[in-house]
Amino acid sequence: MMEIYWLKDESHKYLVGNEITLADLSAACELASLLPIKEDILKDFPKLKQWLLMMLEIPEMQELHKNIMEVQKKAYARIDSARENAAKL
Q1: Fewest C-beta in 10 Å: which of 28, 54, 73, 81?
Q2: 16-28, pLDDT tens digit by residue?
């Protein structure tokens, strides 16, 4: 939905225009929480992936997500390990 409605106008840098808004920050934070997952969940959404990576280049976003991403990576690694072990049974 984000690609179809908010990222469809390629003349817009952000979701609702050319200036960053709370919508961009909120959406980027939500989507960034999925990045540590092993699978590339955004592979079928190139505009969304490009937009998110651009958002994560913002120094404040990097600082905010630095510690969060480390914790999430560890949590997702445990989940992946549990799935792999369950698949062996």
Answers
A1: 81
A2: 999 999 999 999 9
